[in-house]
Prior knowledge:
The protein is mainly β. The chain contains 2 helices and 7 strands; from the N terminus they run βαββαββββ. It has helices spanning 13-17, 75-81; strands at 5-8, 25-35, 47-60, 94-99, 103-106, 112-115, 118-122. The strands form 3 sheets. Strands 1-3-2 form a 3-stranded mixed β-sheet. Strands 4-7 form a two-stranded antiparallel sheet. It has a two-stranded antiparallel ribbon with strand order 5-6.
Amino acid sequence: GDRIHTTVCKPGLELFKNRIKEHCVYSMQNFIVKLNNGKVRTTPHKYKLNFYTKTVVAVLPIKTFAFNPFKFRPFHELDENGSTDENLLFDYIGEVVGKEEVKGLITRTGDETKLITLQLEDL
Length: 123
């Protein structure tokens, strides 16, 4: 019942783009298991899966497993302590009550990106 991050090699993007959907459960063959130590982590799971062109996926009925796609954190935990892992994404229900101006950034690989800071309020 845990979530795990998956990456797809560039040649496999077209192959898996229409086969894999969010909130589904899959049976998989021919994939690689690696440490999940990237800069941005979509799950706290220790490992991630790497798919390549020989990877096979088949949808299973969702009732086969207990499945909750969300990983909520209490507002007071975020408000008082901040994020325990600044690179881990999380789910939050609240209201955006303020924002700062968008800032342009250059990543360490030289790519251009943008950053916006949002002020959140608990519902």
